[in-house]
Q: What sequence folds into this?
């Protein structure tokens, strides 16, 4: 369950790469809520929740809500792509940070860690550990958040 902060927190500027190996910033997602999930292919709980995150993104247009699954694997795409294929991930885009500096910038203590970022780019909630992102209650919860202009 997401742990909501008493007030939104400023998020340090972070940059990472996309599937074209182009640098992208979290600020590029301003204007829509973002579920930023930090994960790695060597992390068993991360692997277990990735199909559900894919289903969550499939439920919503990436224009109105982005699930950003950010890999902290040193191998970047060469680590992510075989996993994506085996797990049949189709709705999530591939993002990675081989330096793993994003985790440090965001004060991440372990993987997986998920941050809910509002459309203004502020962290409003955080979850350390895995979750069931695609069950009906969760999907309805995110629909309400999006409808309430998070």
A:
């Amino acid at each position: 369950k997401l742990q909501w902060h008493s007030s939104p927190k400023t998020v340090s500027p972070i940059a990472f790469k996309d599937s074209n190996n182009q640098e992208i910033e979290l600020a590029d997602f301003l204007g829509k809520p973002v579920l930023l999930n930090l994960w790695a292919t060597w992390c068993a709980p991360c692997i277990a929740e990735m199909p559900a995150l894919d289903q969550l993104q499939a439920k919503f247009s990436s224009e109105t809500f982005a699930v950003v699954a950010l890999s902290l694997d040193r191998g970047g795409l060469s680590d992510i792509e075989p996993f994506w294929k085996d797990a049949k991930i189709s709705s999530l885009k591939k993002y990675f940070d081989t330096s793993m500096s994003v985790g440090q910038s965001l004060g991440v203590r372990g993987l997986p860690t998920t941050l809910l970022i509002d459309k203004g780019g502020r962290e409003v909630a955080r979850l350390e550990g895995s979750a069931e992102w695609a069950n009906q209650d969760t999907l309805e919860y995110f629909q309400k958040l999006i409808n309430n202009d998070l």
Summary: The chain is about 30% helix and 25% strand. The beta strands are 3-10, 15-18, 23-25, 34-39, 66-71, 95-96, 113-117, 122-128. The CA atoms of residues 70 and 147 lie 25 Å apart.
